[in-house]
Amino acid sequence: MIKYWSVVLLLSLTLAAHADEVSVVVSHSGANAKSVLDLSGFKQSDGTAEKLFRQTLENDLKRSGWFTIASEGKKGAYAVKGTCRQAGRNLAVGCLVDNVLNNSTIMDKSYNSESTQARKLAHAAADDIVFAIKKVKGMASTRIAFAGKRQGAKPNVFICDADGENMMQITRDNAICRFITWTPDAASILYTGYVGGYPDVYMINLSSYQKKNVASYPGINAGAVLSPAGGRMAIVLSKDGNPDVYLTDASGKNPKRIVRTPFASEASPSWSPDGEQIVFVSDKSGSPHLYIVGSDGADPKRVTWKGNEDVSPEWGPNGKIVYTSRRQGKYQICVLDVATKKEDQLTGDWVDHEDPSWAPDGRHIVCSQTSNYHSDLYILDTLGDPAVRLTTSPGEWYSPSWSSK
Amino acid sequence: MKLNGNLRVVVVAVCICGLAATSGCKWFRRTPPKSGEQVETPLSVENPPMGERTAEGELVKDLNLQNVQFAYDSFQITDSEVSKIKAVADYLQANPNTYVVNEGHCDERGTAEYNISLGENRAQAVRAYLIGLKVDGSRIQTKSFGKDKPLIEGHNEAAWSKNRRVEFMVYK
After folding, report:
1. What's the ipTM?
2. Of A39, A87, A342, B109, which residue is most buried, by most CB within 10 angstroms?
3. pTM of the predicted model, to two decimals?
4. For residues A147 and A398, is the Cβ–Cβ distance under 8 A?
5. pLDDT tens-digit profile of A127-183?
6. Contacts of B27 in chain A (CB under 8 A)
7. How far apart are CA B53 and CA B142, in angstroms?
8. Which residues contact residue A33 at a Cβ distance below 8 angstroms, ignoring those fewer than 6 apart?
9. Which residues have CB under 8 Å from B127's CB, separation 6+?
10. Does B120 touch chain A (CB under 8 A)?
């Protein structure tokens, strides 16, 4: 916090000194301080692809949460300059970022691809700009996988870009599907589907769309998630009498039970970023709460105490666990900082929120939001920007998972 | 203190009863058929492990098996439901070439994730009961649908109570 305030102070002083040239530098204060970006020096020719690139870039920079875009005629703390031109079938982009205050260039990159890839190119440029200025990972190039059904249709697995565009159905199961996770290389998706009648785990590759069964033990096969290094899989199985957490190898073989509670159920394992620990749900206290256990099964400890029910944890790359907690009768999204044990409640509106998943920027979260028996996906900002609706197609959308890259 | 054999059994029994009384319904949720019902109580109240899945054969229709109903957020088998499970046990014993899949379901309240577990627990509780009634465990599979396959669409107790159920799918 002190750091942010000193930045604001410094910028205010600079502001006073450059009052003529720089009209607004920081539009919010505190943790949600936004740098003002001047995009007026970025010029594109008049084609469809070039305009799409520009529009996508600007939208991505806004959605990143770190910037406000300087209005026309005003300057910012940073200036994005460059060009976007169609050259034959290709789009050629040059992109510079200047730090206006100390008059230095902090990024100078060029991008080139077929003009059909204008959006993808813009996402790459947006993430580079975020990194150049804020030194954090962006989210524009990432994707979100989720389950759902179009109006009147049966459930399947879908993916879309982080801005909600390019929504695609990737299964033809037409059967209940839930518990979607990405493989660490972001090349495949794991999910529980009833395509063979039982709740079994499948892996679908996003290049070939080939699907393979990875777990079909008797009873339920749910919540499968690969370890960060990819060699092991945590999964909930009930083959030995009631739902417990197991570890298998990456192909679903050799299950070994790591949490054994004969009179309680376990659910939703999620790995710590270093792969040393697993957070999961257990109702052994009488209602579901979060526990952390060593990935060898050692020393399970309860870590949430405030909600009536605490479910659907996901351990983020920032070391924080996002989960759903039942507070005053509604399901809200909460964040637990494992190191400090500090809990924050992110949502408080009178609707249900479920299945949160971290963006790789460690700032945003996707979750489902249900009101009047209708579910859509929303993106939440842990630093306080308003929630943004992700899904716009008519239907029911739930169980989202954000890719790691 | 040294206890003789019989006394030790009594002490252990008293301890178990005490535990059962203090831990409320939790302990009883997996309790197999009560004594005095001509059913031998299994040694453990822990659910028995599942056998391998059998490839689904032909569904036996028109058996008129009734769904086992449950209280909200519970997988305890109540007295009113016992006769329904006995009817299934009787059928399975009279028809040795059949097997059953207990399909566990929940009402729409609560998260999808929690309900998958609850539905599985309901299916497994009925499985344990059937095994207590001398049905071979290898003939009973479980399948939880959580809240994803309601019997009755509706957002009221009338629909919810019908949806909290285990359905019996018998195959041959």
Report:
1. 0.85
2. A39
3. 0.87
4. yes
5. 999 999 999 999 999 999 999 999 999 999 999 999 999 999 999 999 999 999 999
6. 263
7. 9
8. A4, A7, A8, A26
9. B47, B48, B50, B102, B137, B140, B142
10. yes
